[in-house]
Amino acid sequence: MNEQIKALQAEIDAFVISNEGELDSFRNQFVGRKSRLAALFDELKNVAAENRREVGQSLNGLKNSAETKFAEAQESFAGNAAGFEVPSDLTLYNPISQGSLHPLTKVRARILEIFNRMGFSVSDGPEIETDFYNFTALNFPANHPAREMQDTFFIEKGAGEIQDDVLLRTHTSNVQIRLMQHQKPPIRSVMPGRVYRNEAISARAHCLFHQVEGLYVDEQVSFKDLKDTLYHFAKEMFGKDTKVRFRPSYFPFTEPSAEMDITCLLCKGDGCNVCKGAGWVEIAGAGMVDPNVLENVGIDSKKYNGFAFGMGIERITMLKYQIKDLRLFTENDVRFLKQFN
């Protein structure tokens, strides 16, 4: 044991500590609880009783030597760190990089501002939804082809009826259903939020995007009210010279239904990849709420009627800022985002 102590003392004396890495290595070998020195203390019980006192004193001396060397080295490194000063001149200009709102956030806020001035409140709801709120209550029969058109992400199949299936919502219309269940007419609200569809990602499509839907339910609501509302929105959002057209369309939850187009702001009607060469861009789908939808949520369709509409925030943003690739919104390229400071 005495020979081991002498050999370990020689190693401690010869060990050079010139950086924090070597300091950590010294601690592991000679000071720590699992060090070689600690192992010698564990073997002290095997030393003969008549020699144990002498060996113990030698081990304590070795321990003190190691701890003293470790403490001095540690103090020297701490002193160097404490004495290091960063030169500074408070009179120098120090530019701070300032961030900005994402373009989708800006456009979303602008859309809500326009509808708020027209008397619409803002409603929110869950992104993980049941089939009932996403499809069934909106007049989608179980075998309806529109269910397949939605390209739904299903999370869990219900044990019973199809309306018990759990899925990622494909539109914010689920919020309309929940709102009508808990609030009686008159109802005037918009529903912004993130939605999901299983689509191939490209310059014009993505598997997740943002929508704003609107709902107005009251007595004697007309299709003219719907057209005037969306016409005013388009003028406020894109400018007074914006041209608007409505085309007949079909949606399970509205009847009659229409799609709303505006002149493509990217190509000024000449044709581009965003408008597919047509010169017009669809920005919204709309229509009068189907009586079946009102009855599904307990609203008397003979007394009340209303209109609903929905639009993609990405589409609006692309038109407003003349962005030609939808993927730029989610790639987090700082060069792209800096343009909106």
Structural overview:
The chain has 341 residues and is an alpha+beta fold. It contains twelve helices and ten strands. It has helices spanning 2-14, 20-31, 36-43, 49-83, 103-117, 131-134, 145-149, 173-182, 223-238, 291-296, 313-321, 334-337; strands at residues 121-122, 128-130, 154-156, 166-168, 187-196, 208-218, 244-251, 254-263, 280-289, 305-312. A seven-stranded mixed beta sheet has the order 1-5-6-10-9-8-7, with helices on both faces. Helix 2 (20-31) runs antiparallel to helix 4 (49-83). The chain is elongated and about 110 Å long.
Top keywords for this entry?
341 residues; seven-stranded mixed β-sheet; three-stranded antiparallel β-sheet
Rg result: 36 Å
Average of per-residue pLDDT values? 87
Number of DSSP helical runs: 12
Main sheet attributes: strand count, strand direction, barrel closure: 7 strands, mixed
Q: How are the strands of the largest sheet arranged?
A: 1-5-6-10-9-8-7
Question: Whole-Å distance between the termini?
Answer: 73 Å
